[in-house]
Amino acid sequence: MIRYDVIVIGAGPAGLSASIEAAEAGMKVAVFDENTRPGGQLFKQIHKFFGAKEHKAKIRGFRIGEELLAEAEKLQVDVHLNAAVIGIHDFNSIAVVENEQVSFYKAGNLIIATGASENMVPFDGWTLPGVIGAGAAQTMMNLHGVLPGKKVLMVGSGNVGLVVGYQLLQAGVEIAAIIDAAPKIGGYGVHASKVARTGVPFLLSHTILKAEGEEFVTGAAVVEVDSKFQPIKGTEKHFDVDTICMAVGLSPMSQLLRIAGCEMKEMGGLVPACNEYGETSISGIFAAGDVAGIEEASSAMVGGRIAGAASALRDGFIMQGDFEEKYKALKESLNQLRQGMFCKENRGKTDMTATEEGIPLSNSLLEKGYLLEKEIIKFPGVKKKAGVHPIIECTQNIPCNPCQTACKFNCISIGENITALPVVIEDSKCTNCGMCVASCSGQAIFLLNEDSEDGFVSITLPYEFLPYPKKGVKGIALDRSGNRVCEAEIIGLRTAEAFDHTALLTMKVPSEFAMSARFFTL
Questions:
Q1: Rounded to 5, what percent of the chain is helix, strand, coil?
Q2: Is the entire prediction scored with pTM above 0.90?
Q3: Hey, is 197 helix, strand or coil?
Q4: Residue 279 belongs to what domain range?
Q5: Are β-strands 101-112 and 2-9 bridged in parallel, bridged antiparallel, or unpaired?
């Protein structure tokens, strides 16, 4: 039986982070994962992360995965792939299926970071080919380069549904609609807005009724629901689609922890009862990431590091004082990610009416995915100034500050509170570098130049669709709702390594559309 100081089960963001932290303390570490490649969800995530610099903000998920793998390799972490852990036995020994044989390993500490699995809602026709999970669609597109379909109905408006919906659009897939049984969009407003301005409609208080087709999906029927989520007769709608994509939540994959005999509790699925360090009711067994409670990948990485450091403390690889200093910094970082309108304490709240700054929340954003022009001007990131200046359409208190750190000329301020709304500083001078536009994880920043040409304005917007429109091309400007508002001409396109594949597209539109034109299409 091969022995390690720490065995980590799961090579996703939490597992890799835990293994790195433990290995840095001098522990002999092994990671086991049932998949053919490590990284978990990270390599499917082509969007930029939220948070602060220490949370890998404005870096795309797959790049974060590459960084973690490089760190683990440098620290000589043993990564076992195609290795399914099928049991945890007494004294922290595990049984693993490798190469069609069962092997046994033992460690002083186990860190379980098995993640979560997609939920599914049964409905008429839900087993037809063409009904898939959002994570499966993301895997097909971003790992294997395969389109899951040509026209998709997305079920679920949480961050997963919004992010995957946008990535489907980037891949050239048409989104018929995004529906949700809830009366309000569940994910970040900036995610919803970047989908809405491409013209995708949102249908809230609607649920899937039926997947149509005999051998595969050929259409979908949806129905409006009342306040008790019961179907309302006569409100059925039909969509001609070949794919129904389900983004209806995740459930922790906690089976191994239950097998081990850890105390469990109900929290959006069965999760282990853990102390502040991630240690379960069984000494030496830790849980990190989604298996300990569904959160963002950024939180999973911090939680993994806490568990890795705690396991090192438990076996004497680091001193108590050093651990406490490290834990204090990690806990503070984790607390930052758990603040704002979408924090755990606010989940399910229906009485939230204003931001932390007292600005009324937009019902249009919550119900349709976009703000009205009369609403956007109330926010501190939207100010009329001479020359080129940023327009920041970030209107919810979410933990994110790359725009502040990206601007070297102090045009943008968030302050010490990471969930504060961005503010455009009155007497600042924008240099038109575009770093704020490219760095915004929510694609919510635009550069407006009202002095570019008589009767016209130029608007620089983040653009992540291929092929890029060429300078001189004429097309149509769309507003926040995806409606056509005017003709537009491309007068500039900037790409740079520092922009990390977010192009800066500059279009010229008539002056009266300065505050409404927000997307370009041919």
A1: 25, 30, 45
A2: yes
A3: coil
A4: 2-117+250-337
A5: parallel
